[in-house]
Each structure stands twice: as structure tokens, then as C-alpha cells.
Design brief:
Blueprint (H helix, E strand, L loop, with lengths): L2 E6 L3 H17 L2 E2 L8 E6 L4 H15 L4 E5 H5 L1 H7 L4 E3 L7 H9 L5 E2 L19 E5 L1 E2 L10 H5 L3 E2 L2 H13 L4 E5 L14 H9 L6 E4 L4 H6 L1 H8 L7 E3 L7 H7 L5 H11 L6 E8 L6 H14 L3 E6 L17 H24 L5 E9 L6 E5 L4 E4 L9 E9 L4 E7 L3
Parallel strand pairs: 1-2, 1-3, 3-4, 4-5, 5-6, 7-10, 10-11, 12-13, 13-14, 17-19
Antiparallel strand pairs: 8-9, 15-16, 15-18, 16-17, 18-19
């Protein structure tokens, strides 16, 4: 039997695409292996959002190209097919709109035939089944593409304009996941708040419809941007109050300076963003994750200080920090106001130290809390059980055999920067 090995880089949408490709290959009769040396061909599902990730993937591709037939999928072949042609001319290429063609790509690569499919296509695969990266988590990409024109970002170039998935297909995927015993549904997109603007649908409506499905599960809303969230804030708040929707939002800030936000072509001001946070925090114990970029071309010391001050003021629960790096074809990459690398690194270190103290302080407030949490997976590092409560706080329970997929009443005893440490008090009836 012919075996494949698949390796995924990047966003949650990419994970979903790899799950789809794995399922389609298995249905065709291929075998999936977790050991690369046992593979007859390899799929690398790629990401080029950040320069370090792109470089890591390119190195990986070059090393593997001498040993295995390769299928390169995702963003890298979509925007860098010229690099692929020069460096890996024998590899099959699948762009971001054609993951469902993986079996044809496999046939071609095994028969040493050319395969390149990176054209744009609006339609989605109607296949709802997946080979899930996490048994209890169903990932649904609710749209592809992007509405933004951010000066630093390559996503719009790679994935094209927004194309929303139909509510019927989203519901079919959700039903399939729940029928396969998933206990979480993750809705993912580049900006979930803008779902449906092209088909006269909306995020709150589709979430309410999914939440009403007859099963015991939680919904996680993926990343959204402030400009669209502000347009229907009351509906967004009501959505998060639903009992089976996590009280959690990933809301990128990127900078605490209006000057930098303008350079970034972000479509909100610091004041608008702060107002949105203030309104969301009216929901009890709401968890907020954000993103920060240091060193955008033209970012002054004053701009950087404003970012630090806003971080201190808002006190986020989770902060993802990125150092600015040029992305080919973007506006920022052509700027003449580049910040020296050493200054970008220095600012990143300062923000990292600030965030470490902040996130630990936020988590320490949970010590002594008692409530229900859903057991979802095993931590491979120390074999503890990882749970989530309604507020999406990650809770680690050690030395206690728990059944995955069940709810437990836990008490928080300790706090770390990235998780809470708890013990099981009882099993809810």
C-alpha cells in the first residue's frame, strides 16, 4: 500500500485543509504514516505569513526533495511558484483553492508527471468528513480570502478576496463533526466578523444556528478584526453570551499608535479598539487574545511607547508578538523608513517581558476559582489532561485519569503564564 506523510505549517485553516487532504487520500486507498521514513510521498502544507516560517519551510523542502516525491500545498506555491519551479521542478503544486484535488496530485507525483494547480476558484469542497488533528475538535473554515489591505501582510495576495462558505455547507460540516463525537467546533477565517458580507449572511446568525444543534459541545470563534466587529457590536456580545460559545476573542491590535495603524492600513483607531474591549469586558470573565507587531517601517520610539502604554492599560490575557519582516509584494516592504534589525529585536524583547508579567498576573486572578471544564486532550509533554472552561482558560490537571470529552468540576490551585493548574473536585451530573 502506498503511504503518505503530511506536515502542516501556519494557521487553523491550514490544519483544516490538511485534515481534508488526509481524508480524501485515505478514501482513495492510500495509507497515512506518522513516520516520515515510511512514506512513499510527502505533502507539505505551507505558510508564508512570516519570513522565518517561510525560510524554515523552504529549507525543509530542499532537504526533503532529494529523498521523496513532494506535493507542496497552500500559500507558498500560490505566491512563489517561480521559486518552486527553480528549486523543486519535480514537485506537484496545489494552491489554496484546490486542496480537494490532492488525489490527482498524488497520482501525478507517483507517475513522475507534472502537476500545478494554483488558479483561483471560488467553490468550496462539499466533502464534510475529515481526519482530525485533534479527535474532539472540528475545524470549519467559514470563508476563504481576506477583506483587508494591510500594508505588511501577504495573506490577501496569497488567498485572494473574501469568499464566504454557504450556511448550509457550514451546518453540514458541523453536523458531521458532532456525529463523529467532536466536543468543540472551531470557526476559522482571516476575520470571522466579516463572514457573510458577500452573501448577505452574518457571523452571529450562523453561530446561533450552530449553537442550537442538539449536542453537548462548545464553539470557539476564530480571529476577528475590530472594524467589522464594531459594526454589529450588540449582536456580537449576544453571541458570546450563548452558553455553548466560549467567552473568548482573538482581536489583533498590532499597534497602540494611531500613526502606525494608519501606516499599517488597519481600519480602526486606538480609541475605537479600546471601546470595543471595554464593551466586551462587560461580559463576565471574558478572555481576550491579541497580536502585536514591533518594528513596522516608520514606527518611532513614541509609537512604540504608546503600544506599551496601551498594553499596560488593557491587560490582555494572551499576546502574540511578531517582529516585522518584509513580505514580498506588500506596501511596507517597499518603504524607505525601515527600522534597524537590532532595534526591532530590542522592542520585541521589551514587549515580551511586559507581556510575561501581564499574562501571569491575569491568570493568578483565577486561583481559587471553581467551575466546570471540558476535558479535551492529553499534554504530550507530561501526560496531564488539558481542559477548557467556558472562558477558554486552559486548565492542566495532573495525576488524575479523566475521560476525554467529559465535563468536570475543577478548582484552580496555581497559575502559569500560559495555563492554569487545577484539580478535579467532582463530576457534574
Amino acid at each position: 500500500m502506498v503511504a503518505f506523510f503530511i506536515e502542516t505549517f501556519g494557521c487553523t485553516a491550514n490544519i483544516s485543509a490538511s485534515e481534508l487532504m488526509s481524508y480524501l487520500l485515505l478514501e482513495r486507498g492510500f495509507e497515512k504514516t506518522d513516520k516520515i521514513d515510511n512514506a512513499d510521498f510527502i505533502i507539505l502544507n505551507t505558510c508564508v505569513v512570516k519570513a522565518p516560517t517561510e525560510n524554515k519551510i523552504k529549507d525543509r523542502i530542499i532537504k526533503l526533495s532529494n529523498r521523496f516525491p513532494l506535493i507542496i500545498a497552500g500559500c507558498l506555491p500560490q505566491v512563489m511558484s517561480d521559486w518552486c519551479k527553480v528549486n523543486i521542478p519535480k514537485a506537484a503544486l496545489i494552491g489554496v483553492d484546490h486542496f480537494y484535488k490532492i488525489c490527482q496530485a498524488a497520482d501525478a507525483i507517483l507517475n513522475e508527471q507534472e502537476f500545478k494547480l494554483i488558479s483561483r476558484k471560488k467553490e468550496f469542497s462539499i466533502e464534510t468528513k475529515r481526519v482530525r488533528a485533534r479527535d474532539l475538535t472540528g475545524i470549519i473554515e467559514i470563508y476563504k480570502g481576506c477583506t483587508g489591505q494591510c500594508a505588511y501582510c501577504i495573506v490577501r495576495i496569497a488567498k485572494g478576496p473574501l469568499v464566504s462558505k454557504s450556511p448550509d455547507l457550514i451546518l453540514n460540516e458541523a453536523r458531521t463533526a458532532l456525529n463523529e463525537d467532536c466536543r468543540e467546533i472551531w470557526l476559522t477565517a482571516q476575520d470571522t466578523a466579516s463572514y457573510g458580507i458577500d452573501i448577505k449572511e452574518s457571523l452571529p446568525e450562523i453561530v446561533k444556528t450552530i449553537a442550537a444543534l442538539p449536542s453537548d459541545f462548545m464553539i470557539r470563534i476564530g480571529m476577528m478584526n475590530a472594524d467589522y466587529a464594531l459594526q454589529f457590536l450588540p449582536e456580537i456580545k449576544d453571541m458570546f453570551k450563548l452558553p455553548n460559545v466560549y467567552s473568548f476573542i482573538h482581536l489583533p491590535l498590532q499597534s497602540g499608535s494611531d500613526n502606525v495603524l494608519t501606516k499599517m492600513k488597519r481600519k480602526y483607531t486606538v480609541k475605537e479598539y479600546a471601546y470595543l474591549i471595554e464593551e466586551l469586558r462587560k461580559i463576565k470573565d471574558f478572555t481576550i487574545s491579541t497580536d502585536i507587531i514591533t518594528g513596522l517601517p516608520g514606527e518611532t520610539e513614541e509609537d512604540f511607547n504608546q503600544t506599551k502604554e496601551l498594553l499596560e492599560k488593557i491587560q490582555f490575557d494572551i499576546v502574540n508578538i511578531s517582529k516585522y519582516g518584509d513580505r514580498r509584494g506588500t506596501v511596507a516592504s517597499k518603504s524607505k523608513e525601515k527600522i534597524p534589525t537590532e532595534i526591532i529585536k530590542e522592542r520585541s524583547v521589551i514587549i515580551t517581558k511586559l507581556v510575561s508579567k501581564m499574562t501571569l498576573k491575569r491568570n493568578e486572578k483565577w486561583i481559587g476559582w471553581q467551575g466546570n471544564a471540558l476535558a479535551l486532550r492529553i499534554d504530550k509533554r507530561n501526560k496531564s489532561i488539558l481542559l477548557r472552561n467556558k472562558f477558554y482558560k486552559l486548565i492542566s490537571v495532573e495525576n488524575s485519569p479523566l475521560d476525554l470529552g467529559k465535563w468536570y468540576r475543577v478548582e484552580i490551585e496555581k497559575a502559569r503564564k500560559t495555563r492554569l493548574i487545577g484539580r478535579v473536585v467532582s463530576v457534574p451530573e
